[in-house]
Write a structure and sequence with these properties.
With about 260 residues, the chain is an all-alpha fold. Helix content is about 75%, strand content about 0%. The chain has one domain. β1 and β2 (about 210-215) form a beta hairpin. α3 runs parallel beside α9 and α7 (about 160-170) packs antiparallel against α8. The chain is globular and about 50 Å long.
């Protein structure tokens, strides 16, 4: 019963944030699942990687819901989507095999430090050089591969990486959120496949598929799909500076909590 209540509440919160901030909900799901799985007596050496894999599995469905809503609003930057999609998918798939070879504490600290850096950037008064534009083919390839790999390692659906990167290159916040939401689907789908394959021979507990813990994935998915469109509606009603500060504040809290748990 505790698992049902905790995962249902987590799904509601994550779904709203996924639609509103284009983050796939993973920024909340991963640290929350670490706490939930630990409390459930999940095998300790697999808690972090299963939280990441399960988060990506839920984002498959959340991103479909959020992306449909953003596409209807014609908010997606399709040129960026086309340039990044393949490389984001490749990086995300490789992440499952990389994460399986990292100690749990290293993976957790790495995720927390990355989120901390992003949060400080988003909370600052930093404004990108107005003359800066997206790089050429080579630069775009590097950014896409980096975004996919890091997003897959953190189980975050890409928004925490892609939104700040797009804002850095003067893509408006709402448009960056919409494009990130749409890229989240192929990223999460292929990233989940990587975690299923890399963990296929692991004996963890009942109801796991690779590193994905199916009961938590199913419960969270139901509520994230229902609530993601609500978040999309909010994202188009909240001013961009306010959205940016909310994004940064959320990441700061999550990063602090993860570092505290790891250290």
């Amino acid at each position: 019963m505790e698992l049902i209540l905790a995962c249902s509440a987590l799904g509601i919160v994550a779904g709203i944030l996924a639609g509103m901030l284009g983050i796939g909900g993973g920024v909340v799901i991963v640290p929350a699942l670490i706490l939930i799985l630990t409390a459930q007596g999940y095998p300790g050496e697999f808690v972090v990687i299963s939280a990441v894999a399960t988060s990506l599995a839920t984002i498959i469905f959340t991103s479909i819901s959020a992306a449909r809503a953003q596409i209807k609003r014609k908010a997606v930057d399709w040129p960026i989507f086309r340039r990044w999609a393949l490389l984001v998918v490749i990086g995300s798939f490789l992440s499952g095999f990389i994460a399986a070879r990292l100690p749990a504490v290293v993976l957790e600290i790495g995720i927390a430090c990355f989120l901390l850096v992003v949060s400080l950037i988003m909370l600052s008064r930093w404004v990108p050089d107005p003359a800066r534009t997206m790089p050429g083919a080579a630069g775009t390839s590097v950014l896409g591969l980096f975004s996919g790999t890091l997003s897959g390692l953190a189980g975050i659906g890409g928004g925490n990486v892609m939104v700040p990167l797009m804002v850095f290159f003067n893509i408006p916040m709402q448009r960056a959120v919409a494009t990130s939401s749409t890229l989240g689907f192929p990223l999460a789908l292929v990233g989940t496949a990587g975690y299923v394959i890399s963990g296929w021979n692991q004996t963890i507990t009942d109801w796991t598929l690779g590193y994905v813990y199916l009961p938590a994935a199913a419960l969270i998915t139901v509520f994230t799909v229902l609530m993601a469109p609500v978040g999309v509606t909010l994202s188009h009603k909240i001013p961009a500076p306010t959205l940016k500060r909310c994004f940064g504040g959320l990441l700061l809290l999550v990063a602090g909590r993860m570092l505290y748990n790891a250290l």
